[in-house]
Amino acid sequence: MSGPRYLSKAYLKERQLNIMDLKDRLTDCINANVNLPAKLYQSYMTNKISPELRIYDLPSTVIDEDYAGNRTEEFIFEIAMRSNDEELINQTLWDISKYISDYDFDLVSQNNSFSFNKLEVTTFPHIVSADTEGNVVYLFDFKITVDTYKESD
Questions:
Q1: Is 139 left (phi over 0), alpha (psi -120 to 50) or beta?
Q2: C-alpha closest to that of 50 among 75, 95, 12, 82
Q3: Residue percentage of the chain with pLDDT more than 90
Q4: Strand pairing of 114-121 and 136-148?
Q5: pLDDT digits (tens, 9 = 90+) for 107-125
Q6: Which of 135, 142, 58 has its CA nearest to residue 99?
């Protein structure tokens, strides 16, 4: 009988560093290369400003792992935008979607923790909520497949 897989503190720390570098490179890349009406931040919506543009990660999956501890992983991200201008939201999210789904899109790790394999947009921008002040929130999701490397002991 197989019990739950023990995840060591070192493994969890390494995994956190991998995803932090990936999120940082992704956020920096979008902010630098897409004309955005608001800066893209890594967090959930605060509902304090409009327009508001956020990116956050959803649960990820280890696709493959070798004996050395190197992994092929799939990270799922969501970009959310809140504003009272639906045309602005649609244009912004479509611009981001077009940029990241371009054949030549690439991300380079700053600390050599990952190698970019591919990115796939999994949902189109769509509305998820509206409030009484006229603000709406749209989302779109995508997944990034990377190879992550175990730190040398």
A1: beta
A2: 82
A3: 62
A4: antiparallel
A5: 999 988 899 999 999 999 9
A6: 142
